[in-house]
Design goal:
Layout (H helix, E strand, L loop, with lengths): L9 E3 L2 E8 L12 H5 L4 E5 L1 E2 L23 H4 L19 E2 L6 E10 L7 E10 L1 E6 L2 E6 L6 E7 L3 E10 L23 E11 L3 E10 L4 E9 L7 E10 L11 E6 L22 E9 L15 E11 L2 E11 L4 E4 L2 E4 L2 E3 L1 E6 L13 H13 L4 E4 L6 H10 L2 E5 L15 H17 L5 E5 L8 H15 L4 E3 L30 H4 L9 H5 L6 E5 L18 E2 L1 H12 L6 H24 L6 E4 L28 H5 L5 E6 L4 E3 L4 E9 L5 E11 L4 E12 L6 E7 L8 E11 L4 E11 L10 E3 L2 H9 L3 E4 L31 E5 L21 H4 L5 E2 L12 E4 L7 E2 L1 E6 L2 E6 L7 H15 L8 E2 L1 H8 L3
Parallel strand pairs: 23-24, 23-30, 24-25, 25-26, 26-27, 28-30, 32-38, 39-40, 40-46, 45-47
Antiparallel strand pairs: 1-12, 2-3, 2-6, 4-12, 5-29, 6-11, 7-10, 7-12, 8-9, 8-11, 13-14, 14-17, 15-16, 15-18, 18-19, 20-21, 21-22, 31-33, 33-36, 34-35, 34-37, 37-38, 41-43, 42-44, 45-46
Helix pairs in contact: 3-4
């Protein structure tokens, strides 16, 4: 945090700098810090703050570009389909966003500075807010550095300077200084890009000989006070004697009370108030070069606490008056804090002693326009408001730490943050083996705490993501050390693993609905749809809170319209490749259809993912991966938002927040499809993690698609219990409540005494038990028999044995998990189905044009046919959407003229479940009706090509 200095003691260095690339690292040896030498090197004038790449200084992307990031899928370099994208001068990579200019290596920046006369006798500090990643500084011929923080400002102490003109030179190197892992989001081309430069505040500061080095604020909620711990630093003559005055003001909340300032005096010769720089927040001692004072600051009985619902902030001002050998110095430091305490109660996390359900998403350093994160507050407030609008309350920074602006924005918006060190020690990197990354992590953690530790939004920290190596003992010691150093937040070893006793909470990949390599055995693919399951067995088996790691990862099809937003450094050439693949397959006109249909399936999977967590008593929370798309790691389109945090066409924040938020009505449904002659019962539950007492009426209703109520009632009136343990009642619908086949919607409403409404809803499908029609349609499972019959002019429904259908496509209910390239083609390979809901086929089977829960029985065990060799005019009646890497034309239900007859091929599961029975009846009725008139003709060999038995 920078010193609060008057303007005449600060020199802004933003503007033009002479710049030279040093890819071979020869600049220091050749003394490029001397202007006459740098003049002899090919240079350009670039602007700082900024990066060299965004200003077009560097190299074009080639096949030899030395990317920072692991490429799991090597097909780009080997597959003939990618040959057009490997051509010199037109390389397009499919595994991440591609910068228009690439550079990896050292860069030199140089300019002159004029040191004012009134800076005499003061130390001069160069402040570089965000550097990627190592900085070395020369003032004239004098070298300082290096500094290597990826998370906090680089501050180079240049000492006392002679007034007048000087040459200031920076050498910034973005190569791998320490092996933190090639995929760590702090450095990788998977995310922000491996940029080179300086962003944010760039200035010289003239600081007094005795200064406030650090202000640490430790809130005490019970006493409505704070302990303000002030570190002092002095020059060769020490810190002398003087006083520190601490005051506070309300920052963003109303109230007239202003706590009185508190003054503490000190004397470096032994006054009681003075201590040394503490190793943690409780130790005391003495050193000769500095001191430490504890000042207790009462805030008043009406002091307001900070949380997600009421983010009340206070600004603390610390003023130092110091005298050293008759010279008086003055320094001021300001910091913002909140009266907030975070803790653990059993298996849940608490904020200010109230259970809090963590509903998080990731921020993975994806900033497509610049390639680096913003250092201004407003862009971060926009992101965090979007997070809040979707009902989430936490952002996890995956293997990186954001700039100060992100913390400030989160403080103001009431968003909780999980911060991580800039480490993903995997894929060749490792922890606990004595490598440089071990020491770097400790140093970086200390820097993060010093720079951002007062922010109330900073509630949790992990070392980084998914470590490898001998990490358990190392991380256990890391957690224990830093919890002792700073207990103001919760500590966990890592995002992903290991779950160790030292953790305050475990952030692990269990439980969730789809695990790595689980494929078609995951719950949503392997078991019929219901909303009764939860994670109770996992939670009760543990001793600590569990926040499930990177849940969801449900994909949607690329939105090719998004490409127009990429007006900066990063280019969506990966998206361009996928658009080409779709066009070559003859389906370019279906791009928007694929996006919408896959997106609606993605949304319903996220709904069940989130509700399963909210249904679980004692559960601590989850982190989505993520609310927005991750354009790296093979292109992971897992968000209901795009890479710019903008809504996609198929979902809104309002819709998402119905099932994700501090107060969410829940229904425990034993199934999603039923018959009109069956009774149907379900329990109602409310996950209440909102502020204070919830006095409300809880009601339910069933309505048709036009909004007309079919049934309803009130379950309870009065106080809704905190948490999610209680069930508020059971509802039973007697047989005959719906007299015909239709889709209906169950709505549960919580209406508070103040008029606030929380609603959630679930689609159900009810089917009337009518007999199958008896049209003149021949059914067979044998391909050759079907061809003989159509040759004779028959109408044939071919339902081949799924086990004998030749296909390499694994079809499930859910969409692709993460993406098929990064997961090495894990199942399922599709993104749901699409169809025309107005087609006569669906007269007896209500559907909305995309996968929904009534399709589960039909899709379970079904096989997707690859239709690429068939006429381009053939569009299946029900069409699975292939992964964008393959863009194959697929079908599970198609019709065609074959010979003198007509053929319907159905590879869906037509069993006796209510939904499958209704679909079969609707299909037979369509085939027997006048609307059945296949437009495309197939030859017997074309039929055999896609249906020949294995």
């Amino acid at each position: 945090m920078p010193d609060d200095l008057p303007d005449h003691h600060v020199l802004d260095l933003s503007g033009p700098w002479r710049t030279a690339l040093d890819p071979d690292g020869v600049g220091e040896h050749e003394r490029w810090y001397r202007p006459s030498v740098l003049d002899a090197v090919a240079t350009r004038e670039l602007t700082l703050p900024g990066s060299v790449q965004e200003q077009g200084f560097g190299d074009p992307v080639t096949l030899e570009t030395p990317w920072t990031g692991l490429v799991v899928d090597r097909s780009f370099y080997e597959d003939e389909r990618y040959a057009p994208y490997r051509e010199d001068g037109n390389v397009s990579v499919p595994f991440w966003l591609q910068p228009h200019t690439y550079y990896r290596g050292a860069v030199w920046f140089q300019r002159t500075v004029d040191v004012p006369p009134d800076w005499a006798g003061r130390r001069v500090v160069l402040h570089l807010e965000r550097v990627h990643w190592e900085s070395v500084v020369w003032l004239d011929d004098r070298r300082t550095g290096p500094q290597r923080s990826l998370s906090t400002p680089h501050r180079h102490d240049l000492g006392e300077l002679e007034p007048g003109r000087h040459v200031l030179t920076l050498r910034i190197d973005n190569r791998t200084v320490v092996d933190v892992g090639p995929n760590a989001h702090s450095v990788s081309d998977h995310t922000q890009g491996n940029w080179n430069g300086v962003v944010g505040e760039l200035r010289l500061e003239a600081v007094p000989p005795v200064t406030i080095r650090r202000v640490t604020v430790v809130p005490d909620v019970a006493r409505r006070s704070a302990r303000v711990r002030v570190d002092l630093a002095g020059g060769p003559l020490g810190i002398g004697h003087g006083s520190v005055t601490v005051s506070a003001r309300r920052f963003n909340v109303p109230g007239e009370h202003v706590p009185p300032p508190v003054t503490a005096s000190y004397d470096s010769d032994g006054a009681q108030e003075l201590t040394d720089h503490p190793r943690d927040l409780g130790e005391r001692g003495m050193t000769g070069s500095g001191g430490h004072l504890d000042v207790d600051l009462p805030l008043g009985a009406d002091a307001q606490t900070w949380d997600e619902f009421h983010p009340a902030l206070y600004e603390v001002t610390v003023e130092l008056l110091a005298t050293v050998r008759d010279r008086r110095d003055h320094d001021t430091r300001r910091t913002t804090f909140g009266l907030r305490e975070v803790g653990v109660r059993g298996t849940q996390v608490t904020v200010n002693d109230r259970p809090t359900f963590l509903r998080g998403t990731l921020e993975s350093a994806v900033w497509p326009l610049t390639g680096y994160p913003p250092t201004e507050v407003e862009p971060w407030r926009r992101v965090l408001r979007t997070v809040r609008a979707h009902g989430l309350n936490l952002v996890r920074f995956h293997s990186w730490c954001p700039p100060e602006a992100a913390f400030t924005a989160a403080d103001l918006e009431g968003v909780l943050l999980q911060v991580e060190g800039p480490v993903w020690a995997n894929q060749g990197a490792a922890l606990g083996e004595g490598r440089p990354v071990d020491r770097f992590l400790h140093e970086e953690t200390e820097r993060i705490l010093e720079a951002y530790g007062n922010h109330p939004s900073f509630v949790a920290m992990a070392h980084g993501n998914e470590p490898a190596g001998r990490d358990v003992e190392f991380l256990g010691a890391w957690v224990a050390h830093f919890r002792r150093l700073d207990p103001r937040r919760l500590w966990t070893s890592a995002a992903g693993w290991p779950a160790i006793p030292e953790n305050d909470f475990d952030n692990v990949p269990d439980p969730r609905l789809h695990r790595w390599e689980e494929g078609l055995a995951s719950r949503l693919n392997a078991t019929p749809p219901q909303t009764e399951s939860d994670h109770s067995a996992f939670v009760t088996a543990g001793a600590r809170p569990v926040v499930s790691h990177e849940v969801g990862q449900w994909c949607a099809y690329p939105d090719f319209q998004e490409a127009s937003k990429y007006t900066g450094l990063m280019q969506p050439r990966n998206s361009g490749i996928f658009a080409d693949f779709l066009r070559r397959s003859g389906m370019a006109d279906q791009a928007e259809e694929f996006l919408h249909a896959s997106g609606r399936l993605q949304l319903l999977c996220y709904k069940e993912e989130v509700e399963t967590a909210l249904r679980t008593p004692g559960f601590a929370g989850f982190h989505l991966l993520g609310l927005n798309d991750f354009p790296g790691q093979g292109t992971a389109l897992v968000g209901v938002l795009d890479a710019f945090w903008d809504e996609k066409p198929y979902a809104t924040a309002t819709e998402f927040a119905r099932f994700c938020g501090p107060v969410v009505p829940l229904a425990r449904l034993p199934r999603r499809t039923l018959r009109t002659d069956e009774a149907f019962s379900f329990d109602v539950q409310v996950a209440h993690f909102g502020p204070g007492v919830l006095d409300a009426e809880v009601s339910w209703r069933v309505e048709d698609t036009a909004g007309s109520q079919l049934a309803g009632g009130v379950l309870s009136r009065g106080e809704v219990p905190d948490g999610n343990d209680a069930r508020l009642g059971t509802v039973t619908l007697e047989p005959g409540w719906s007299e015909r086949t239709r889709q209906v919607r169950l709505v549960v409403r919580v209406r508070t005494s103040g008029g606030t409404v929380h609603e959630n809803d679930w689609s159900l499908w009810v089917y009337a038990p009518v007999p199958d029609p008896e049209p003149e349609v021949t059914r067979t499972a044998d391909v050759e028999e079907a061809l003989r019959l159509t040759a004779a002019g028959a109408t044939v429904l071919l339902t081949p044995d799924p086990a004998r259908v030749r296909t390499e496509v694994e079809l499930g209910f859910t969409p692709v998990f993460w993406n098929t390239a990064w997961t090495r083609n894990q199942a399922p390979h599709t993104l749901g189905i699409t169809h025309d809901p107005g087609h006569p086929l669906f007269a007896g089977f209500p559907s909305q044009g995309h996968t929904d829960w009534q399709w589960w029985d039909l899709l379970h065990g079904a096989k997707a046919l690859v239709l690429d060799g068939l006429p381009t005019g053939l569009r299946p009646l029900v069409q699975p959407i292939d992964t964008w890497f393959s863009a194959r034309r697929l079908g599970v239900l198609l019709e065609a003229r074959v010979g003198a007859g007509r053929l319907v091929v159905c590879t869906l599961t037509l069993d006796d479940s209510p939904a499958a029975t209704a679909f079969r009846r609707s299909l037979l009725a369509y085939v027997a009706g006048d609307a059945f008139a296949p437009a495309t003709e197939l030859t017997p060999d074309e039929v055999r090509a896609v249906l020949a038995p294995v």
